[in-house]
Amino acid sequence: MLRKTLHPAMLTGALLLALLGSAPAQTTTTTPIDTTLGGPLDLGKMWTFDSPPTDYFKKTYNINADEKWFDEARMAALRFADYCSASFVSANGLVMTNHHCARESGTGVQRKGEDLNATGFYAKTLAEERKVDGLFVDQLVKIEDITRRVQDAMTAAGTNEQAQLQAREQVFETIKTEYGAKAEWKGLELQAITFYNGGRYALYGFKRYTDVRLVFMPELQLGFFGGDPDNFTYPRYALDCSFFRVYDNNKPLQTKHFFKFNTNGVRDGEPIFVIGNPGRTERLKTVAELEFDRDLQTPHTVQLLRNRSSALQAYNATAKNDSILNEIFSYENSIKAIGGQLAGMRDPTLMARKARFERQFKAAAQTKNVPADQLKTWDELAANTQQLRGLFNDATYLGPSERTMGDLLTFANVVTQFSQLLASRPEDAERARSLMVAPSVKNMALEEAYLAAHLAEAQAGLGNNDPYVQAALNGKSPKEAAAYLVKNTKLTDPEFVKELATRPNAASASDDPMLALARIGFPRYLAAARQARQISQRQEVLRGQLGRMLYAVYGNAVPPDATFSLRINDGVVQGYPYNGTQAPIITTFAGLYDRNYSFGDKAPWNLPARWKNPPVALLKEPMCFISTNDIIGGNSGSPMINKNREAVGLVFDGNMESLPGEFIFVPDLNRSISVHAGGMVAAMRYIYKADRLVGELTGVAVKK
């Protein structure tokens, strides 16, 4: 399940932002393989539509992809809400994306007595298609290069990093206001896009469609067949697809920009292209930064996610709540994804590749006569990263968030600073007073579990001799201490909280155990977080310098990191060796049933009743396939097209070997996994009897 991964370790509440201070928002037909120990190809192949790789496609695949080819591909692609990709696949506004992208939208339209996770959904007529409130899709229709204006504004701001970042944000807003008034841009959703960490900038204009209706969605057992055990693995058997329709003036949108379905299959070695919105990669990170992630940040994140998922699973064993189940899926997906990234960072071969490219990049920059002060960028990034190491413990283990330490201790952290805020910035204190409302904790067992996880993490990270840990545990285990704190705090009492909000020194004088603990931890967190923020601002500016150098040295020959902006990437249909054998390029529905029977029809390999006795014709149909394309979270729902711009599949995942793709692209074993176009149509024809949809996708009416 290829989605943008969760990272719950974040600040919470307007008051925390006030305390921290304001800051800017932030000629061969095979895939070319980098056979060196590292080089520019490690940066991947997520090409932009601003500078489409026309010559590269011609040289590599002998494909004449001209300006029209790229324009048509861009206009048929969509961004699905703010978290997935999608595409038009018919002239009548039919939209294709993944089941896991549509799960919340799909279940959001279910009616009383329905369970669409269990039954799936198919609208037999247009009238039965259900509008999803709040759902939108965006189509990229305008692109403008704004690099010079943005870089000039940052340069004019001087050497102060915060001033430079503020100038960047201000010029973004100015440009959006200017272009929003132009006739050809009016009515579009405008977004400033950063490439090469600031080496290039663009203004994108999106046409937003807000009348989006559900047409088809399979059952959860098919959309996420195999559950977490099969996630990021191959061979794979998942019907991870769904279909919606865009309406305009209450009628299906008529569009000439769409990908026709090609159900005839894909051939071994065939060039193939993914068009979508990869969420985030950090392939331009320096070795020093990656070592920081490897040693500190990423292991902490994996442990945090694992602990919160365990708490939710224990809670849901009795609650059986679908929304909690979806949350658990997201956590487990993130654990596996980020765990794979960590394994990649711990792989000495991959880190050696990063180090070799870094040396190549420096040498190439010197030959380009890059100014000497810019050549110090790597050293400055390393020095800043070393400072961040010293701040990591307090900035991380003591940082308040409902998902890291629970609602009550998070609120206690906020309360302890109220009197200080009242004295130093009364105007902010008045605004913050409205936040001083006793937390409404819906489930104390879950609250205790989160708090216990936080205390265990603090104990492991800070050590038993740390004053915060000693005060929190006081000779107890993390679980016992959490139970004690929850039982003895008065922060759930509205009258007690009201008194804290009206008496300036009430929080500092209170013997409430939560407040006492917060008085120890929160000042340390604030001090570390403020320093870390300043360093991070310097890092952001330095990364921008690195990005400018990268573009100066390599130009469009290497693509920028992913930023959830529209990209096209290339690859070929190709198997790979695994587990002592060979992975086939295609799986079939027969394999789905083999896996179901092999596990005795038990979850998560169970099948709904309608799937239990399939027609023989279905078994030989293709279900999923693999290719060497470069994808990441956010690419979920991306169409997989051939050289004729026909949809031959739908990306939904990568294999385990693809997970280091966050920081490096190594195509040897990296594979993207797609639902086969023929497999989607076969399921609709043989199982769901979705004749109307089959006819629309194939252009051939189904015979009764």
Automatic annotation (TrEMBL):
Short name of one Pfam family: Peptidase_S46
Top EC group: hydrolase
Enzyme nomenclature, EC number: 3.4.14.-
Keyword Protease assigned: yes
Statement: the UniProt record of this protein carries the keyword Signal: yes
Record's function text: Catalyzes the removal of dipeptides from the N-terminus of oligopeptides.
Entry GO MF terms: dipeptidyl-peptidase activity; serine-type aminopeptidase activity
Gene3D superfamilies reported in the protein's UniProt record: Trypsin-like serine proteases (2.40.10.10)
The species this protein was found in: Spirosoma montaniterrae
GO biological process, one term: peptide catabolic process
Signal peptide range in chain numbering: 1-25
Protein name: Dipeptidyl-peptidase
Coiled-coil intervals, chain numbering: none
Chain segments annotated as transmembrane: none
Keywords, ordered alphabetically: Aminopeptidase, Hydrolase, Protease, Serine protease, Signal
Family from the record: Belongs to the peptidase S46 family.
